[in-house]
Amino acid sequence: MLLTISHTTRYQYDRPARHALQQVRLTPKSRAGQSVQQWQTDITGGSKQLSYDDQHNNHVELISFDPDATEVVIHSHGTVESTNGTGIVGPQGGFAPLWYFRRQTALTRPGPGLRKLMRDLAQAGASDDVANMHALMNAIEAAVRYETGATHAETTAEEALEAGHGVCQDHAHIFITLARMLGYPARYVSGYLMMNDRVEQDATHAWAEAHIAGLGWVGFDVSNAISPDERYVRVATGLDYREAAPISGLLVGAGTEEMAVTLQVQQ
């Protein structure tokens, strides 16, 4: 499937920032299940300072704002050829060893609710690793309904489970936490998903991957209760959202910020 993607993030300020640097992780790479045909990121109101591949092999661009800018636009666009690998990505790449992905973080640290859910899953005892991960995905979907506006970027996995609702980021964090507790390396994935009923998408998407012996990394999208297919494009991975966020950075001295995102993903 050939997917065309156009992703624009627009920042507006009532006065220019004294200093601003943004890490932009919006460039997908050719890898198992996807081949990037063309990709470009254009900046208005700022400039690219450098680019590099981080410890997860994500392509990162460092962007500074122009001194007098009150509007900054980051526009990423391109085409990606994708195939359906039933979620299988394959062996570990990048610079981080597998044991690194068993580490919990501030966003994935388990509390009483997650420990109880993990005990329930352990008692259920699925027959193999893949079945274990699908059981985990289904248990999270049942426990935490999808609901926008109920959580935010700093909501932890434990908080989302306790609230009983959240978005794809929360589902991914809960899956990662429990998979690590069960002994599997697990990581967060940010990227794009083409919804079948629309071109305009609400936001970028997030899901999780677990490393399974004999298969390597395998994706699980709790929010849609499936393993990723040809409608998905992987962009960045990390221990949690903070390491794979599409855009993150430092802003000093700006006034009120307004942000608007427009995203189109279509065949």
From TrEMBL:
InterPro entries assigned: Bac_transglu_N, Papain-like_cys_pep_sf, Transglutaminase-like
Organism from which the protein derives: Oceaniradius stylonematis
Protein name, per record: Transglutaminase family protein
Lineage, uppermost ranks: Bacteria, Pseudomonadati, Pseudomonadota, Alphaproteobacteria, Hyphomicrobiales
Domain Transglutaminase-like positions: 160-224
Any single Pfam family the record assigns to this protein: Bact_transglu_N
PANTHER family per UniProt: BLR5614 PROTEIN-RELATED, SLL1049 PROTEIN
